[in-house]
Amino acid sequence: MTDKKYSSHYSGSLDTSGSRLVHGLDDDVDSDSNWLISLSDILSLLLVFFIMFLVMTKGSGAGEKADPVRDREQTLPAAAEKDMVEPFPINAWDEIATRVSSLDFSDNVSVLETKRELIVTIREKVTFSPGEAEILHGFEPVLDSIAEVITKHRNLNVEIIGHTDNVPIRTSRYQSNWELSISRAASVLRYFIQNHSIDSSRLSIRGNADLKPTAPNDTPEHRAQNRRVEIKLRRPEA
Fold it and tell me: Which residues have a Cβ under 8 Å from the Cβ of 164 and sit 6 or more positions away?
C-alpha cells in the first residue's frame, strides 16, 4: 500500500512538472514566432518602399521632358525675343514718314518706331487752336495719310492720346486740361471713324493732361512741345 501511494504521488508530481515544461516550451515558441513575423513585416515594408522609390525616381526622370510648367518657362524667353525682333510691319514706318514728309509737316509731326509700337506725335500748332478741340482743316491730309496706313494694316490697334501743358484752363466748355486733352483725342478718333470707316474696336483714346511732358514747362517754347497728340499703332499682343 505504501509503495502504491508513493508511486501515485510521484506520478502526479511528474505530470504536473511535465505539463509546466510543455507549456513553457509553447510560450517560447510563440514568442519566437511573433518576433519572426514582425521582422518579416519590416523587411516586406522596406522592400515595398525601395520598389516604390525606384519607380518614383524613374517616373520623375521621364516626366521632366513633358513638364508643361518647365517647358513654358523655357519657351517664354524665346517668344519674347521673337516679339522684340519683329514687333511691327516693316513698311509701316516708311509709309507714314514718307507721307508726312511729302505734305511738308516734318517740323510739327514726328514718327518714332520702338520695339513694340509706332508713335506719331503731332504738335498742337497744326492740329488745334489754343484751348479748342476742333481739328484744323489744314491738318486733315496728315490724318488721312495715317488713316490709310491704319486701314491697310488691319492687325494694328490704335491708341490716341491727348497732352497739354501745365497752364490751367477754365472755359465754358473745358473746365480742366483733363477735359481738353481727352476731347482732342476724341476728335481724332471721330475723324478716323467718320471719314475712313475704321473699325471703332481697333481705336481707343486717353487724356493725360500735363502729366506726361516731353520738356519742362518753363518756357513758351517748351510748353508748346508738350501740347500735342500722340497716335500709337501697335499689334494686339503688344
Answer: 177, 180, 181, 209, 210, 226, 227
